[in-house]
Amino acid sequence: MTFLTVHAFGQDADSLLAKVRAKLAGVSDYTAEGIMKTDVSFMKVPDARITVYFKQPDRFKIRKQDGISIMPKGGVNINLTTLFAGNRYTAVGAGKAAVNGTAVAVVKLLPLDEQSDVVVSTLYIDEKEYLIRKAVITTRENGTYEMEMSYGKYANRGLPDKVSFIFSTKDYKLPKGLAIDYDAGEKPRNTTTNEKGKIEISYTSYAINTGLSNDIFN
Fold first, then answer.
1. Quick check: 197 and 167 in contact, CB under 8 A?
2. Tens-digit pLDDT profile for the chain (218 aa)?
3. Strands, E assignment, 19-87
4. Which of 158, 167, 185, 197 lies 20 to 30 Å (CA to CA) from residue 7?
5. Nearest-CA neighbor of 112 among 86, 145, 148?
6. DSSP secondary structure of 63-85
7. Which residues 6+ apart lie within 8 Å of 186 measured at CB?
């Protein structure tokens, strides 16, 4: 009986993920404009206008208004589609929860690749809209970080209006670009405690499926 219950739950998780992936797969590429806010106690980083580029299956780049590119390190990424790249994972249902008042199903993704930097991804999925409301990702190199998504006029494409990226300043290695901002500022105080940092991106517009060149990501 236990095996049958777990098996059925696993099938539900796979079915739900298939619907989420189908929504995201409708976006082959996009260019998005937005504002990035950085809240880290030992850094003084002004709000920045950014342009975000994405192309299936996993090309992703952020460029600030000053021309500096911010490249996520290791398994860290703030683009949802890359979580599913290659379809090389096992999905396991992990119950129900709520995110900011929205009922969600909890699904864990366990990578099949033993060399993957991502150890496990826990997704909180809106079963009515097939949207990922929250993701908690544990990596080998950057500890555990969280992403929270809120949606608006691009929800039918699975694209968020706002992404909040929350991480431990002790474990997380700052990406190129933010590291430059830090180098130009004050030195960090002791970060051995589990202090949280936050990067928030509010998107103002998306240009979807325009046929982005691969050269943009070089």
1. yes
2. 444 333 434 448 899 999 999 998 899 999 999 999 988 877 777 899 999 999 988 888 889 888 777 655 544 556 677 777 666 788 899 999 999 999 999 999 998 888 887 889 999 999 999 999 999 988 887 788 899 999 999 999 999 999 998 888 776 666 655 655 655 555 455 545 568 888 899 999 999 999 999 999 88
3. 29-39, 48-55, 59-64, 69-70
4. 158
5. 86
6. EETTS-EEB--TT--S-GGGGGG
7. 42, 44
One-letter amino acid identity for 48?
A
Question: Which residues are CB-neighbours of 13 under 8 A, at least 6 positions away?
Answer: 91, 92, 93, 105, 107
Alpha carbon separation from 61 to 55, 78, 146, 188, 190 (Å, rounded):
9, 10, 19, 26, 30
> For residues 36 and 66, what is the distance between their CA atoms, to the nearest angstrom?
13
Q: Which residue is associated with the tokens 């079963």?
A: 127
Whether the bond between 46 and the residue before it is cis, its omega within 30 degrees of 0, is no
User: Is the entire prediction scored with pTM above 0.90?
Assistant: no
What does the block give as tokens for 211? 């046929």
Which amino acid belongs to residue 183? D
Left, alpha or beta for 47 (phi > 0: left; psi -120 to 50: alpha)?
beta
The count of residues in the chain is 218
- At residue 56, what are phi and psi to the nearest 5 degrees? -60, 145
In the chain, the domains with their CATH numbers are: 2-209 (2.50.20.10)
163, amino acid identity: V
